[in-house]
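User: I'm curious whether this sequence folds into something compact or stays loose and floppy. Could you predict its structure so I can see for myself?
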Amino acid sequence: MVRAGLTAERLARAGAELADEVGFEQVTVSALARRFDVKVASLYSHLKNSQDLKTRIALLSLEELADRCATALAGRAGKDALTAFADVYRDYAREYPGRYAAAQLRLDPETAAASAGVRHAQMTRAILRGYDLTEPDQTHAVRMLGSVFHGYVSLEMAGGFSHSEPDSQETWARVLDALDALLRNWPAA
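Assistant: Here's the prediction. I'll summarize afterward.
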């Protein structure tokens, strides 16, 4: 018998909340069952297993993040767009650390191709059009931006910048200035 009110979507949302509370790696079907005060078996009519739950949380997180990025990018170009995009990633990671971790989950190629991850790549490439990069430089730049944003946010969230001056916000602004300058003067191959 299916418990009234439980759906795969509701379970994914509850799993995302749980991830923000306890960490993405700690999210399991068993932990979710405890949250709803139901037996684990009752959730298997909605979820295949813990990996299915984690994939659903990842897809939800990618969608939320893409929606926030799209809103932030509307009407912006150049450095303004780059900064808005980067700030959305940083703010999302700070507000929803478990969901941010979920958004990094490696998805199988078919699931990834149908996910909001495609929108993230499209938005990044749209920002880069303002810098007149052609292939393969555009792909190099997409990878660089993702690496810098994720690296900075991960170090900051782990407390890596909390023990020294200047404030990490000041460094973040300098990093974005440097990225903008690099993109405007992208080195020739």
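Summary: Residues 50-73 form the longest helix (24 residues). The chain has a mean pLDDT of 93.
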